[in-house]
Design a protein that fits this description.
Shape: globular
Oligomer: single chain
CATH topology: Rossmann fold
Helix content: 25-40%
Number of domains: 1
CATH class: Alpha Beta
Bound molecules: adenosine-5'-triphosphate, magnesium ion
Radius of gyration: 18 Å
Order of helices and strands: EEEHEEHEHHHEHEHEE
CATH architecture: 3-Layer(aba) Sandwich
Distance between the termini: 29 Å
């Protein structure tokens, strides 16, 4: 095994990320190492400011570490070309954020179909448009949103918006879903429903890496890692 990929969805080795602010350096990640098996649900908990979002941004190819290794589905990220990074980010990674990040000028169905569009050539997209639409509709139905497909995000409740974001994250059948405080902006009951939705997709085989400061939410995961002082500890 050349890079330790094997049956791992995510391998992180000795990851470092610091932010330089003027003359001071904030060392956020200081040698973070862990792995996520395919099909596993792992939660990372840590206090506000401990670097949870920073960690997800490295794994999701939204930012680059200063040092260390990230292997996604057996492939070392550092060795990828820019085009390959973009392709992997669009096709293999699903993001769910605290504040949804839906596009206000598009309706629900369009928001869900967008990643499927971005990850393909124009011609490929046109050829598969019908089946993609059907898949988006199926996902939205499973998430209880069939009667909301024409709504714009601003015409939805918070819980509905997050379910749209989950559908968008899942449309390309990503190898891993990265969720950053997915219930952080919701009341506790709606948050419970969102966690139930994520757990259900996990039971059906979806690999899931979630970061949260909420220990109760993390309790839903199969494994909990604690981020503290820039490093991970298993409790
Ligand atoms: N682009 C940046 N430039 C400078 N400092 C940053 C940047 N992004 C994050 N930080 C700092 O790095 C630290 C970790 O931030 P991060 O967003 O990863 O924390 P977090 O664990 O996700 O917190 P929260 O639970 O509040 O979302 C914080 O102290 C933050 O101020
Ligand atoms: Mg954060």
């Amino acid at each position: 095994m050349s890079n330790g990929g094997g049956n791992m969805a995510v391998v992180v080795r000795k990851l470092h990320r610091a932010y330089r602010m003027g003359r001071s350096v904030l060392r956020v990640l200081r040698g973070v190492s862990f792995q996520v098996h395919r099909g596993e649900f792992v939660a990372v908990v840590g206090a506000s400011g401990s670097g949870k979002s920073t960690l997800l941004h490295q794994i999701g190819l939204l930012d680059r570490p200063d040092k260390g290794q990230i292997v996604l589905d057996g492939e070392e990220v550092a060795a990828m070309s820019a085009a390959k990074r973009n392709a992997v980010r669009c096709r293999d990674i699903g993001f769910v954020f605290q504040f949804y990040h839906l596009l206000g000028e598009f309706n629900v169905l369009e928001n869900v179909m967008l990643p499927a569009q971005m990850s393909r050539s124009t011609l490929g997209w046109l050829m598969r448009r019908k089946s993609r639409r059907r898949e988006a509709m199926e996902l939205l139905e499973r998430l209880g949103l069939s009667d909301r497909i024409k709504h714009r995000p601003q015409e939805l409740s918070g819980g509905e918006r997050q379910r749209v974001a989950i559908a968008r994250a899942l449309i390309n059948r990503p190898k891993v879903v990265l969720a950053d405080e997915p219930t952080g902006n919701l009341d506790s009951r709606t948050g419970e429903q969102i966690m139930e939705v994520l757990s259900e997709f996990h039971r059906q085989g979806q690999t899931l890496l979630m970061v949260t400061h909420d220990a109760a939410l993390a309790g839903r995961a199969e494994r909990i890692l604690h981020l503290h002082d820039g490093q991970l500890k298993t409790k």
